[in-house]
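Q: what sequence does this backbone want?
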């Protein structure tokens, strides 16, 4: 019992989003001690992108760069006994598992157990679930799902830590999930290592808040920090590591001799990220009370957090759905000289008039005009400039008819010679219409969801 109380588990997060620097994981495994390496890949729109990939190719639909990364770090992870947890499986966990195993075989490493946690993807179950009573009303607006039901492109449940814990118990060295909740990736190894009961809600909340602190990678070690001038060596910013204790307290830190900054202020900034009601932070595993957090500096680049309280989770899982919502196009032009604002408006009027000449009509509410260089990002806060000498015009529209948007894009380049003077650049070639992905957040009763675990040895 005493040994368990003195035990520390070191968990690092190497990926804040799909596209984060690959240096995160490479450096974390080389620069210092880590027990678990977590990777957070999935955002709402990511699931829709992966679903489209899978529709085009049955062997795709997951984070392929994660598989490549496994090939680069698996030898050192085995040597240092580092376990890996990632929600990189997207909408095709079986294909991801197959690719991971193939990559590991190519490295020559053996004796690695790879596990997947299935059950979050309910795309193929929607009709059955609706018949059985799930309404899938929009949890933000209350709207009924019927108008978009035929246009849904992905539907994934935010599952919790339990499935990951079971995969670890079955001996998995690498655990891959679909749309698992971001903090659950960190909570799961703590439940496994410390034997925390799932109904010890203070512990569940502590692990959830640990996960929340590090889920965005280096955003808690000085990245995206208001006082960025005080952050040293941002090029080599250290990715976060939590030193977790059995009682639920933990220290946020980073490896020695890395850049970045871990302070009460950097950690607090991340704690407030994407936070609704601070007394009731909802996760699939618990409800965490952020107002119970006790936070203090614990030495250089060390922040201690303790005292966290939690309550039983709700009876529902959140479901992230995406659906096709028409098309959009976005074009850019650089405008210089006097009267840039008036020129930009004239150019926009010309384009939409020409679209109409081609026989298409785009409603006023579906037109899009922005001027960078005229305090656009501070609209309503800082007055617009009277006479900016140069602006970047972003002109676009949305429509259910992609042909109308193709015409709009084709009429941008002619403005250079047929519009007002001072158009000094045509950026990126002709824009192409792209599909608009709509977001539909909703809920499902937890009793409807069962996860399945598969662990295979390489």
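A:
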């Amino acid at each position: 019992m005493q040994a368990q109380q003195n035990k520390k588990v070191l968990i690092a997060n190497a990926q804040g989003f799909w596209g984060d620097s690959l240096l995160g994981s490479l450096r974390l495994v080389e620069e210092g001690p880590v027990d678990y390496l977590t990777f957070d890949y999935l955002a709402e729109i990511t699931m829709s992108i992966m679903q489209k990939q899978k529709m085009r190719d049955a062997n795709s639909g997951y984070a392929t760069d994660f598989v490549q990364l496994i090939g680069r770090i698996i030898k050192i992870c085995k040597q240092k006994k580092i376990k890996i947890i990632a929600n990189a499986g997207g909408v095709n966990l079986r294909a991801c598992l197959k690719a991971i195993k193939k990559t590991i075989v190519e490295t020559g490493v053996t004796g690695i157990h790879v596990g997947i946690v299935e059950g979050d993807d309910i795309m193929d179950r929607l009709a059955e679930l609706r018949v059985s009573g799930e309404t899938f009303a929009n949890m933000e607006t209350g709207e009924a799902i019927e108008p978009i039901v035929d246009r849904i492109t992905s539907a994934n449940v935010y599952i919790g830590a339990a499935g990951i814990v079971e995969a670890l118990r079955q001996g998995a060295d690498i655990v891959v999930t679909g749309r698992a909740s971001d903090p659950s990736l960190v909570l799961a190894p703590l439940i496994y290592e410390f034997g925390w009961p799932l109904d010890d809600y203070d512990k569940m909340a502590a692990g959830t808040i640990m996960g929340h602190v590090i889920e965005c990678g280096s955003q808690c070690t000085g990245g995206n920090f208001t006082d960025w001038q005080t952050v040293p060596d941002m090029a080599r910013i250290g990715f976060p590591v939590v030193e977790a204790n059995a009682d639920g307290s933990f220290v946020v830190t980073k490896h020695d001799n890395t850049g970045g900054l871990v302070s009460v202020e950097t950690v607090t900034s991340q704690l407030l990220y994407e936070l609704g009601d601070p007394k009731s932070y909802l996760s699939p595993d618990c409800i965490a009370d952020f107002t119970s957090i006790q936070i203090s500096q614990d030495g250089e680049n060390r922040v201690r957090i303790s005292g966290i309280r939690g309550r039983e989770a709700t009876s529902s899982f959140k479901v992230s759905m995406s659906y096709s919502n028409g098309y959009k196009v976005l074009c850019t032009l650089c405008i210089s000289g006097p009267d840039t604002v008036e020129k930009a408006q004239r150019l926009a009027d010309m384009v939409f008039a020409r679209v109409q000449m081609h026989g298409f009509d785009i409603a006023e509410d579906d037109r899009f005009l922005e001027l960078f260089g005229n305090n656009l990002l501070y609209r309503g806060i800082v007055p617009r400039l009277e006479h900016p000498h140069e602006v970047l015009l972003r002109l676009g529209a949305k429509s259910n008819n992609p042909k109308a948007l193709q015409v709009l894009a084709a009429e941008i380049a002619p403005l250079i010679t047929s519009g007002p003077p001072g158009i000094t650049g045509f950026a990126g070639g002709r824009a192409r219409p792209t599909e608009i992905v709509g977001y539909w957040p909703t809920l499902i009763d937890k009793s409807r969801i069962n996860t399945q675990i598969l662990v295979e040895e390489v």
